[in-house]
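Hi W.,

Here's what went into the run:
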Amino acid sequence: MTGKTLYDKIWDAHLVGEDAATGEAVLYIDLHLIHEVTTPQAFAGLKAAGRAVRRPDLTLAVADHNTPTENQALGLAGVRDEAARNQLTALTRNVKEHGIEFFPMGELRNGIVHVVGPEQGRTQPGMTVVCGDSHTSTHGAFGALAHGIGTSEVEHVLATQTLRARKMKNMAIEVSGRLNEGVTAKDLALHLIAHIGTAGGTGYVMEYRGEAIRALSMEGRMTLCNLSIEGGARAGLIAPDEVTFDYVRGRPAAPKGGAWELAEKHWRTLYSDDDAQWDEVVHINAADIEPTVTWGTSPEQAIALSGKVPDPAQMTDPIKRSAATRALDYMGLEAGQRIAGTPIQRVFIGSCTNSRIEDLRAAAEVAKTGKVADGVRAMVVPGSGLVRAQAESEGLDTVFSAAGFEWREPGCSMCLGMNPDILAPGERCASTSNRNFEGRQGRGGRTHLMSPYLAARAAISGVIG
Amino acid sequence: MKPFTKLRTTAAPLTDKGKLMANVDTDMIIPKQFLKTTERVGLAEGLFHELKTLPDGSMNPDFVLNKPKYKGAGVLIAGENFGCGSSREHAPWALLDQGITCVIAPSYADIFFNNSGKNGILALRLPQEICEKLAEQAGGGNSVFEIDLEHQTVTGPDGTDYRFEIDPGRKDKLLNGLDDIAMTLQRAPDIERFEAQRKLTTPWLETIG
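Here's what came out:
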């Protein structure tokens, strides 16, 4: 018998049954994270059909996508946008009706759903985790099979605690060697996506492997797995190890005492066997990776910071050429210009990709060295109330404020601009988020994705670099 | 879910400077400001909002769905990796609200592909060159297409049949408009058995919430 990948193992352990007629498997879900934007229609569907939530105890709710990042203590009354307030009210009502644990806006444990799950110890190795948000891939950093689902599937999970799914293929991303000094998980992810393309992982679960991955902190691993979806893969995975166990141990929902011993014993079996079969293997040499930024409107349009904006005329693939031409026009860049030195007007440090304590520490180190440049508005949005409190206990808020950064309250904020934090048309932003799509951060806004370190540097110098 | 069987309609090609647009993301299909609804209907207003309107808010006469010829188009033709990005099901809801129940493209992002199936939208795959050919035909005088799911064919305005492949399970669900939740609830005894076993094998997961 051939060996199994980590994905195969988690899949097999959660198989409730298979449906020959539809070719689907019914997979048990260990953790269902929910938020205000992708659930109201699901709860309405349950109600219309007279169905209950099967396992409220395996469901956790937060408000994060459309919450303002100031005056959260005012509660819903402080949310000026009526439509956003309606969604938040609907979530509050729905979780109460179904007995689901909820961290509302303004409470210390609230924050971005993909920061909160791990922080509370709700995310654990070997689990299946779903959420109506594509960046659910973040939780794969713990060796959990985690991916985004649509609202119909949210309703399905609420009603049955299972998901109808088809097995995906296995892709190994082997990252050999060590990352260079100053190169982060964000740079690694953007480098990889530029290499395989934004649809390179479509149909696959990606497992990140190798020395460079082992050397990453949990924060770095979460950043990397978070961006799996930008490479087309619904889920990314990293086999759990001591780094994982150390992170989970002692968190509120982590197993305690004898239960911990039992859990850890199980978690130590969660790795891909040496003779596992991979459908695809991608090799990356960590030493080749430089600090990386995007120049276009797709995460695959990324280059080294030392590089030049590519020339569409030199591209042989007509589809890539057409996309690059459109992107240059939208971004207001010229083919062949150096990306370093491009002036920016906005800086956003936050999102489920890069808003954890390690990210804020990296940005604060830079903030200590100067002041936000004239004509630049820079925001720091911590991933959760607890991240914010931790940062404040380390004095990072003082560092940011003294340097002229705005120190905000937690939420998804300008990553997707559902709240008041958006770019004006033509504004150029150095952003630690995950998507540089046209209009993502505001109509006509121009997003350059990068690490917190590079974004903070852009804030101080006023240019990418 | 409404079953999908046959469709006879005009098809709108989503192009940029004459080329089919690749990597059309869900932010483009339905921008963030339209996600604050608690309904599944009424989303057509937001469909391709930033493409169909000009910065001053007026309608962009050059956008395909604004052209009189494509007002009632039930099919959209696009480039590869259609629907990449966010998991927002508002994307297929907005297409449905516009009356689009079929997309033709060389490939799709996984989550969008899944979400469209759950809403009775046929997202069918044909090779890039055929998509280009169909887009060209869709721009001609006669742009009526016929989609037949049972026989897995797209008939172009020129009368040529193009066969597409689809997983038999997906096809069955679309043809019959099957309700996933009802199907899974029939397996309640399996779920109960699984949960009983789960308590024994991973007991620490039981006391988590």
